[in-house]
Amino acid sequence: MAEAYIVGAVRTPVGKKKGGLSTVHPTDLAAHTLKALIERTGVDPAAVEDVILGCVMQFGPQSMDIARNAWLSAGLPETVPGVTIDRQCGSSQQSIHFAAQGVMSGTQDLVVAGGVESMSVVPMGSSIKAALDMGMPFPFGEMWVERYGKQEISQFRGAELMCEKWGYTREVLEQFALESHQRAAKAIANGYFKEQIAPINGVEDDEGPRADTTLEKMGTLKTLKEGGQITAATSSQISDGSGAVLIASEQAVKDHGLTPRARIHQLALLGDDPVYMLTAPIPATQRALKKAGMSIDQIDVVEINEAFAPVPLAWTHELGADPAKVNPNGGAIALGHPLGGTGAILMTKLLHELERTGGRYGLQTMCEGGGQANVTIIERL
Predict the structure, then answer these.
(1) What pTM does this model have?
(2) Is there a catalytic annotation at residue 89?
(3) 97, 265, 352, 367: which one is catalytic?
(4) Most CB atoms within 10 A, among 53, 94, 147, 271?
(5) Chain center to CA of 204
(6) In what residue span(s) does the Thiolase N-terminal domain sit (predicted)?
(7) Of 97, 185, 184, which Cα lies nearest the Cα of 375?
(8) β 361-368/110-118 pair status
(9) Contact 222/231 with Cβ under 8 angstroms?
(10) Residue 137 predicted with pLDDT over 80
(11) Catalytic residue at 163?
(12) In the 8-state DSSP scheme, what is residue 22?
């Protein structure tokens, strides 16, 4: 099978809700990242065979195939098509999988993968409200109810169910959240993210991290559910952002004088209980490692999306991973989670951290709506 190489990866800073990126049209947000990717890699944009972007709320300003519209907005060749996909929070990680698989199959040589989400412009749940306005149950019909019954299906309930199953108290979750902010603040102060970010709208750094937060401050927040453990402090932040990655074949590397920065080593997917919703990264990672013939100890850097604190905590426990290797520069609790953009943003962070530290293998995973997970293992070159 042909190899697929990452030859470029860039992201916007992640803006907080109603922050510095909230006035940027989502199409322009993605266009900015695509343009930066082409400029930084120096590739002929007409040679790109497809643009695959993830976006969750494909509604309003994010509708009508934002991948195609963003490419054109960036002033790039009309001959290059684009497609927008939705695997919930894993949408742009899935776009990387599709791009890599196109190259590995031998049917494509140069593919852009990425994602975008402006949660300030298109609030989470916009499509649900639209469906209810149409008079239809959302998102489940009668056949779903026959299988799973009438019960709450949400990421918030899933997070609480994880706390119950693994015995995580509010205090444990808040300690994890505090460390996420501390790691992110340190990374920003030390300039770890500078090379990977394409500033936009006057914003140069991620806006989410709170260097001055404390356990005492977190303790004043109300839980999202009465009697529950989860608060806003132990949940991912509502954010705006975009990321893009250029995937190339060996032939494209030669033809365009590109420098391979990492090799796609393993791709895996798995579904799990849709009621728990957030647990799939655990068995999906186990599958990926087994397919790769690797142990978790061989992984130098892990990026797992901090949708809620129990997700990375349970994953780290079940996999026996070294906590120091997991989200070493903070995660979505501090840095934010712009839904469809997060997968490409995490991959950009993962690649740059491997290069900064000299690590060899990196692993990325995240929980996704419907109880799903993507796992990507890359090898730095």
Answers:
(1) 0.97
(2) yes
(3) 367
(4) 53
(5) 20
(6) 5-251
(7) 97
(8) unpaired
(9) yes
(10) no
(11) no
(12) T
